[in-house]
Design brief:
Shape of chain A: globular
Oligomer: heterotetramer
Structural class of chain A: alpha/beta
Distance between the termini of chain A: 26 Å
Chains: A alpha/beta (about 500), B mainly alpha (about 325), C alpha/beta (about 300)
CATH topology of the largest domain in chain A: Rossmann fold
Strand order of the largest sheet of chain C: 2-1-3-4-5-12
Bound molecules: adenosine-5'-triphosphate, magnesium ion
CATH architecture of the largest domain in chain A: 3-Layer(aba) Sandwich
Number of strands of chain C: 13
Radius of gyration of chain A: 24 Å
Number of strands of chain A: 24
Chain lengths: ~500, ~325, ~300, ~325
């Protein structure tokens, strides 16, 4: 990826389109924001950066009336404003695409795009014709003509759903558009579309705030950047004057280490062997992974990677094929419990809905996957749970008040560590990880890569999915690419390059 | 990186459009419809001379007309993703209020308006509790039901009120072209509710909120107002049902039409199975109401013991819902 | 054991009487509780009134604990013996006699006195009225609507059904038709009769209903279907009396609760004064048939006071 | 990357440990506890001579003992995130079954076992419908309730069964150290349920499933089995409550203890407010049961009109739940 040349530094600053001064916000005693400061000019794309838990999402929610600051001021075009709720913010032209926001699955795509105040209506009645027409136009403007506006949004693929949510944000005719990690679940094609749209909006004078953990994107797209740490703003500067290493070290408050650790040496002993696996999408997949090896799996969205891992973890039924772990054949569709007993553990793709129980404590979350190992004769040992929790907190350096803090209060990266801790306590022989660093800051990413290496060094076999090619190459020993459910290529990581992998992703098989 | 990548979408898209065709989209022949047809067929074959005659169909319609209205109210609340367990109690109190007011000398229209206002206020109160004070709809409306029945006992002083003006009773007992007025009213109210749910911005907001409160809120839907209005409308419509029941029976008591709550919920649930999204919907509710009505009438016609009727009613509701759920089961 | 010691003495402590009913949510139950409390207070008793709201789980413990705290007499209003077995045990254990009004259809050792109405008499009166109206019962089709959970209704509907069959009549639907819940009694009866008439046009001659509320549903079904069957009920509620006066309902039955209550209050006074219990512990009192002829003279049961 | 980075946490840690200390963690003085204390105080001040006497406290305990058992059953199901609307009906059927069996000459222990097996089977059936056929718990148990009441009517032939052997009645009416046996039984069953919920693998699984079905499934919990067992246990425990109620009253009818369903749900809801996570929990449920018991006993002692009692009961449940929710409202 090249750094694009059309970044225009915003040198002469006028009145900011939206600005925040000295914002303080606490949740139950947690300081989410401690005097944060931020401003965005019309006609610029402004990156908001920071580690997990730095307070980016909270700031955005305050800027759009979802949360109310404990103190501090917000100005819009120089005038002080207090947004009572999202509607008021939207009416003032401030619109956000939130991090966790998705679509409403039970209503149509068209209604999703033009929700609430946006719905074309006359005298309280919906104008269905206009609704569909405008929805179609919105989708066309982001090059998503294939998405049917009459379909239930829940029937779309995850990628399409994200694009629908994006179309909704654009449909509001925002003067200030805030995007919180919009690309986390998109593939490169959609990202290109998205960037084109954002650039044209910027050129029309829209102020855009862009939150992402993918720094390459930031350097490609954005004009200025603001870095937050521990709830305060550290620095704002032109992207053109910044360097990626410096940005990283500012974000984490220390010097950036090497992102990916050294590769280890895999053993010859096969930990898991998969023969001719067929599922709903997965077609005749055979693979093996050795003890101490990190096998990366790449492919486009919907290529069947997640399904493959879910089948291997016993979480989804398959049609036929064999799964052999440590020389023993697993029964057909064993279920997660038996797969876990056999030493196969899955860190799933959707952290919030599949990985952690948000309303339960860290300790209870870790216990869920370890119920059989912490109990004797049907009685659970609180002491054993405590032990594995403490170990997890320490080993993974989870930032929390203690084992009893609710997971919903942790930042994304720490939630992901809880998922890992939960599965690692089972001491898996084969660890399956689906997008293990999605939505995680660079600092934590590096920690996770190191952890993966450490586990491999201890003899664990690891299969990890990633949609980011540099990550796939950096963290793996060997890479398999899926295309429409089939293995379209396999390559050793140290000789892989992005171009080759991409051609496999598009189905150009190895010859 | 080229844009041709978008071509991967069609494979899934076209499948979706398949389901989503305009007519088929919200009317899949689910188990509920099968159950209704099977019941009608069964009773017709058992008593071909009676079951599908004009008189008997009229009977069925008359018997379910008030349930249909109250189930319509329940549908509105369930579209928003809540429950209203107080609909039955509200309808009883509305009937009692209208009755007591008329017996106290109030003119009929004023008494009816008063009753409807009472229903509206109960609905509003439910809405405030659920939408603004964030109580679970279950506990809020359960407690409300308890209180409202108490108030209805106070209003009727524990007796059954009667001796209403003939013009009032005519509302529930009068006929137009051989068909009792409540049947027309039930149809009119159902069509209005259907229209509101489908064609008004409020109705669409209810659907959005029912799909996801959080997404709706973050997308600028006034979630609280939408839920408040849903409960308010439900209270109001339940009150219409209650006034009509009082007129239909010519009397009003505190526990009148008690089973409408349970049957209204059952009807909406039965109806939810006909949509793939599993959302509450008025057409489905009416099919649910029809199942309940046909079942009770048919079993009466066959002379089945009341207790066995009750066992069968539960079993058939379970069977109908199970049939539909089988379709969605594979995950 | 304890009762007699204080029974004679009117000087020191007022005699304690526990009056309870589960049916205080019905007009008659409510009237009885008030009437008994008022009369008892006038007689110098210390009356503790316990209202049960049809909830035995709540009422029985309350009554038993009152018994446990000492009392001279327990007075049961309209609560069937079956539902208060635990109270009977408690009062027997404490040696306190239980008087009762309409609390069981048969003699029971649990009571010192239970006065109820003559169920066979009620059936004779109502079936007599039906018979007169439709020209005998022989060969006629009559629907009997009952409600088994209520002991009185259960007994009289059973008697009525037997008598109809014995007189050569046919029970519509082949058996007694049951109303499941008293709350929806009127609607259930309405549907039962309407559906029967539809399924069997021109067959129904009369509907005998065990209580007025449901009878009024039957009346409505018949008038809506344009059928000419006659209906009788029981209880003499004001609504039923009005229907009888209007001619839409054939007859109902007045049960003389005020005079029965007076009789029992006398028996209790007698016991408190002298310690003697009535000779017989079960008494059945005759009722009055309410027809168009005498309807105007009857005090409706829901307007006793 | 050094570990010193973790040092940012401490500033907040100390503040928060306040809430999170072991005792305080699952027992925040929510509105529900405030409501209970307020009610006790109020009634005590109104009737200091009566309300807190040994006899009256014993009365309250006796009066709520069976509700406590059934609310315990409801808690189990609600921990898993479901409802069981059939608990009341199941308990009535169990009592009726035991009664009918004894009157039919079956020995007491056999009759009791039969009743408990019936309860267990109903629970199992509920569990199959909800866990394996994916019916909504609401509609499945609502329909089950209808059918079960019908069966209970058939078992009792619509009457109230009585004249049970004295030894059977002793179970519900006997006393030990002045305290009635059902009170002990309610305590024992509550403690067992509390233990099962807190310390067994099954209890852990229930909590996990209640937190998130999907997360639990992907963590190796057999979600279906867990839900099935929750319903089964609830049916079984409800049946214990029903048998005890029959013994306590010396009689059994099809609708006996009808309002236990409603009050059990209300009790669990009241109890859910004491946990920050808002999950059903046994200690909370018992506080809810106590509120309901104190309220009904206290209002009786004050001689409040039954209808007004009913109005107040609903209002106080709403007030208690609202009080707790205010705390959590700001989001
Ligand atoms: N609703 C809440 N209740 C309690 N604490 C919260 C809540 N929302 C956020 N926090 C806390 O506020 C802090 C900032 O979180 P925020 O989500 O704003 O971080 P972020 O920078 O967006 O992180 P990420 O990159 O992981 O999305 C974190 O410590 C988080 O735990
Ligand atoms: N057309 C579809 N209809 C329903 N569900 C779908 C469809 N396409 C994909 N899914 C679901 O989306 C999830 C992801 O699909 P899959 O495993 O094929 O993709 P992937 O390669 O992991 O890509 P992604 O990056 O989108 O996760 C799976 O749970 C799959 O069942
Ligand atoms: Mg964030
Ligand atoms: Mg995936």
């Amino acid at each position: 990826m090249t750094l694009v040349e059309d970044t225009i530094p915003v040198s002469e600053l006028g009145t900011p389109a939206l600005a925040a001064e000295n914002i303080v916000k606490r949740f139950d005693g947690v300081h989410a924001l401690e005097g944060a400061r931020f401003s965005v000019q019309p006609g610029e794309i402004h990156a908001l950066l920071g580690e997990n838990g730095a307070g980016k999402s909270t700031l955005i929610k305050i800027l759009t009336g979802v949360h109310h600051p404990d103190s501090g001021t917000i100005t819009r075009n120089g005038e002080k404003v207090e947004f009572a709720n999202v509607r008021v913010a939207n009416a003032a032209g401030v619109v956000a695409l939130y991090q966790e926001l998705s679509i409403i699955p039970s209503i149509s795509v068209a209604e999703n795009i033009l929700l609430g105040e946006q719905t074309p209506s006359r005298g309280g009645f919906v104008q269905w014709g206009a609704l569909k027409k405008r929805a179609k136009e919105q989708l066309e403007s982001i090059n998503q003509r294939k998405i049917p506006v009459n379909a239930l949004a829940g029937d779309l693929s995850p990628v399409q759903q994200t694009m629908v949510a994006f179309a909704r944000a654009l449909a509001t005719d925002a003067k200030v558009l805030i995007l919180d990690e919009p690309t986390a679940s998109l593939t490169d094609t959609e990202i290109i579309e998205l960037f084109a749209v954002l650039r044209s909006l910027r050129d029309r004078g829209v102020a855009i705030v862009y939150v992402s953990h993918r720094l390459e994107e930031v350097f490609e797209l954005c004009d200025r950047l603001t870095i937050m740490r521990n709830g305060t703003t550290i620095i704002t500067k032109d992207v053109a004057d910044s360097h990626i290493d410096e940005v990283i070290s500012t974000m984490v408050g220390r010097n950036a280490n090497e992102l990916f650790p050294e590769r280890g040496t895999a053993t010859d002993e096969v930990a898991m062997e998969v023969l001719h696996l067929n599922g709903r999408r997965v077609k005749d997949v055979s693979l093996e992974v050795r003890k101490g090896e990190v096998l990366g799996i790449g492919g486009l969205a919907g290529s069947g990677r997640s399904e493959l891992l879910r089948i291997l973890a016993g979480a989804q039924k398959h049609v036929d094929g064999e799964i052999i772990v440590g020389g023993t054949k697993l029964p057909h569709s064993p279920g997660v419990g038996r797969a876990l007993d056999a030493g196969v553990a899955l860190v799933p793709e959707e952290r919030r809905s599949q990985g952690v129980i948000l309303d339960a404590s860290i300790q209870d979350n870790i216990a869920v996957a370890n119920i059989p190992t912490v109990s004797t004769a049907g009685i659970v040992s609180g002491a054993k749970i405590s032990t594995i929790t403490q170990r997890g907190l320490a080993d993974l350096k989870i930032k929390a008040r203690g084992p009893k803090q609710h997971v919903g209060e942790l930042s994304g990266g720490n939630q992901q560590k809880v998922v890992l801790a939960k599965m690692l306590a089972r001491k898996p022989k084969v660890l399956l990880m689906d997008e293990p660093t999605r939505g995680i800051d660079v600092g934590t990413k590096a920690e996770i890569y190191r952890l993966i290496r450490q586990l491999a060094a201890e003899g664990t076999a690891i299969i990890a999915i990633s949609s980011e090619l540099p990550e796939l190459i950096g963290m793996s020993d060997r890479i398999i690419i899926l295309h429409e459910g089939e293995v379209s290529g396999e390559v050793a990581a140290d000789v892989a390059d992005e171009e080759l992998l991409l051609s496999y992703c598009y189905g150009k098989s190895q010859s | 990186m080229t844009t041709t990548d978008n071509n991967k979408a069609p494979t899934t898209t076209s499948i979706v459009v398949g389901h989503a065709s305009n007519a088929g989209r919200w009317m899949m022949q689910g188990g509920t419809i099968v159950a209704l047809v099977a019941l009608v067929l069964f009773f017709f074959l058992m008593r071909p001379d009676v079951f599908l005659t004009f008189v008997n169909i009229k009977n069925i319609l008359y018997q379910v007309s008030i349930l249909a209205i109250i189930a319509g109210a329940q549908t509105v609340v369930m579209v928003v993703g809540d429950f209203d367990l107080s609909v039955g109690a509200t309808s009883a109190l509305a009937g009692a209020t209208a009755g007591a007011a008329m017996l106290g000398g109030m003119p009929i229209p004023a008494a009816i308006v008063l009753a409807l206002v009472v229903g509206l206020l109960i609905g509003l109160l439910n809405g405030v509790l659920v939408a603004y004070l964030n109580l679970s709809a279950f506990i809020a409306t359960l407690a409300m039901m308890t209180s409202v029945i108490g108030v209805a006992f106070l209003v009727t002083q524990g007796t059954t009120l009667f001796n209403f003006p003939a013009e009032f009773n005519e509302l529930g007992q009068g006929k137009l072209f051989e068909i009792p007025l409540p049947v027309y009213l039930a149809i009119v109210i159902s069509v209005i509710l259907w229209f509101v749910l489908r064609y008004t911005t409020l109705g669409r907001q209810w659907h959005a909120v029912g799909g996801s409160v959080e997404v709706s809120r973050l997308s600028g839907v006034n979630v609280r107002r939408a839920r408040l209005l849903a409960f308010t409308l439900a209270g109001f419509v339940s009150a219409i049902g209650g006034v009509l029941l009082a007129a239909r029976l010519g009397s009003a008591s505190a526990v009148q039409g008690e089973d409408n709550m349970m049957f209204s919920v059952a009807a909406v649930f039965l109806g939810m199975t006909i949509l793939r999204s599993g959302a509450a919907n008025l057409v489905g509710t009416m099919i649910g109401v029809a199942i309940i009505g046909v079942l009770s009438n048919g079993l009466n016609i066959l002379g089945v013991n009341a207790y066995i009727q009750q066992v069968l009613t539960g079993a058939i509701i379970i069977a109908a819902v199970t049939l539909s759920s089988l379709k969605h089961r594979e995950r | 054991l304890t009762g007699c010691s204080s029974s004679g003495g009117d000087s020191d402590a007022a005699p304690k009487v526990i009056a309870f009913t589960s049916g205080n949510q019905t007009p008659i139950g409510g009237w009885w509780l008030n009437n008994t409390e008022a009369q008892g207070t006038e007689l110098g008793w210390d009356v503790s009134a316990i209202a049960g709201d049809f909830d035995f789980q709540k009422m029985n413990p309350a009554v038993e604990s009152a018994i446990g705290q000492g009392a001279d007499v327990v007075y049961n209003g309209f609560t069937d013996i079956a539902s208060i077995a635990s109270i009977v045990t408690a009062s027997q254990d404490a040696g306190i006699p239980m008087f009762a009004i309409d609390a069981g259809t048969e003699p029971n050792d649990g009571y010192a006195l239970n006065i109820t109405t003559d169920q066979q008499g009620i059936v004779d009166q109502t079936l007599g009225a039906i018979s007169d109206a439709i020209g005998g019962l022989d060969g006629k089709t009559i629907m009997v609507i009952g409600h088994d959970p209520h002991a009185g209704i259960r007994m009289r509907s059973g008697l009525a059904a037997d008598d109809i069959v014995a007189a050569g009549g046919t029970l519509a639907g082949g058996a007694i038709q049951q109303v499941v819940s008293p709350a929806t009694g009127r609607t259930e009866a309405l549907a039962l009769v309407a559906d029967f008439i539809t399924a069997n046009p021109g067959v129904l001659d009369a509907v005998w209903v065990g209580w007025d509320d449901a009878a009024l549903g039957a009346v409505q079904a018949i008038s809506e279907a344009g059928a000419d069957a006659v209906v009788t009920g029981c209880d003499a509620t004001s609504e039923a009396i009005a229907a009888v006066e209007a001619g839409t309902m054939l007859a109902t039955v007045e049960q003389p609760w005020p005079s029965i209550n007076d009789t029992i209050m006398d028996a209790i006074s007698e016991y408190l004064a002298t310690g003697t219990l009535p000779d017989s512990n079960f008494e059945m009192v005759a009722t009055t048939l309410v027809t168009q002829a005498n309807a105007a003279d009857i005090t409706p049961s829901d307007q006793l006071g």
